[in-house]
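dumping this here so i dont lose it
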């Protein structure tokens, strides 16, 4: 399934927020991303239709198994790329911003090569 960058951002955000709290509300997602609540609601509906997100009876969002697999992959890309950019001498804020852009477009083949190189170098 091909997910657009914005959908990936939402999944990653839910994943990151769920690591800090057992409950993730739409307003939490909106605040984290700087989006409006209606935009988040619309996106959550689309992700729900794709079977990647579910909303419980209390209104909290959770990733489905498929959603969590994708979110973990996206988050791993973000963390590995950020670390690589920092190792290259880029400041942390810029490295994180650039990693966020690159993580959505880099191929699996190239990312796997970067990850293997980073592991070989002990980074």
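and the seq i came up w/
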């Amino acid at each position: 399934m091909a997910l657009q960058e914005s959908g990936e951002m939402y999944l990653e955000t839910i994943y990151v927020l769920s690591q800090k709290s057992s409950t993730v509300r739409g307003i939490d997602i909106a605040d984290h991303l700087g989006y409006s609540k209606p935009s988040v609601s619309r996106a959550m509906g689309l992700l729900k239709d794709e079977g990647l997100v579910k909303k419980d009876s209390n209104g909290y969002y959770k990733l489905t198994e498929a959603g969590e697999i994708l979110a973990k992959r996206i988050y791993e890309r973000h963390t590995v790329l950020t670390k690589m950019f920092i190792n290259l001498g880029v400041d942390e804020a810029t490295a994180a911003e650039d990693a966020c852009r690159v993580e959505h477009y880099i191929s699996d083949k190239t990312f796997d090569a970067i990850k293997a190189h980073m592991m070989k170098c002990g980074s």
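The chain has a mean pLDDT of 92.
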